[in-house]
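Take a protein:
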Amino acid sequence: MGARKRISAEERKNDLKSVSFAKLRNVPSSPRKMRLVVDMVRGMEVFRALGVLKYSNKEAAAKVEKLLRSAIANWEQKNERKAESGELYVTSINVDCSTTLKRMRPAPQGRGYRIRKRSNHVTLFVDTKDVAVKDDDDTEIYNENQN
């Protein structure tokens, strides 16, 4: 491995040390079905997202719920304290395609139809939301500019 590649790999590794995430790999459902569930919880507070996933009637929701619990546990392990309500948010969640198993189904007149059994990878990032607090001096300047 070249020096430049090694340095960028180490930088990426150090960046991931400060972020809490969980990965779910080779899930045997199509990415399209998984994205429907993932879109419901993107950007949501984690305990609210757990409630949404628990009462969803999609099969993929149970898998994403388990993944979210894992990401919360990873955050708690890194920060050495329990997560409080309203503190953690799903900052980023994405679904990528994985390998596709190709199968053949018999069709009329000696032909075969191709069946594609898709699978996916899900990556979920959890972090606290930064709340910007304005100083009293900034609000006074803002009020003076309004008049």
In short: Residues 22 and 67 are 6 Å apart (CA to CA).
